[in-house]
Amino acid sequence: MPSRSRATAFDADTYTTYTLGMAQVTIYLPDKLEKAIKAEARRSHQSLSAFIASLAAGKLKPDRWPSEFAELYGAWEGPFRQMADELPDEPGEF
Prior knowledge:
Layout: E1 2-6, E2 15-18, H1 31-43, H2 48-60, H3 67-72
Antiparallel strand pairs: 1-2
Helix pairs in contact: 1-2
């Protein structure tokens, strides 16, 4: 459902904006950090909003294994211990 339409005497086209479940958030940043974020967003050819959203999404819900996993994959040398049929009475007792 369109949230608003706008037509002007200068445009022959009508523009429609769709809202697709996006929240609007206000944040306060130190000036130096704001400039750095804007510069990085420009370098990555993203809007400021898309850049910050991608940072948050990556931090909160990564869509891939962490790089440390790839470094450890296959690193174990030696036999694996067999699991006990029963739980131990004391911690560390295997």
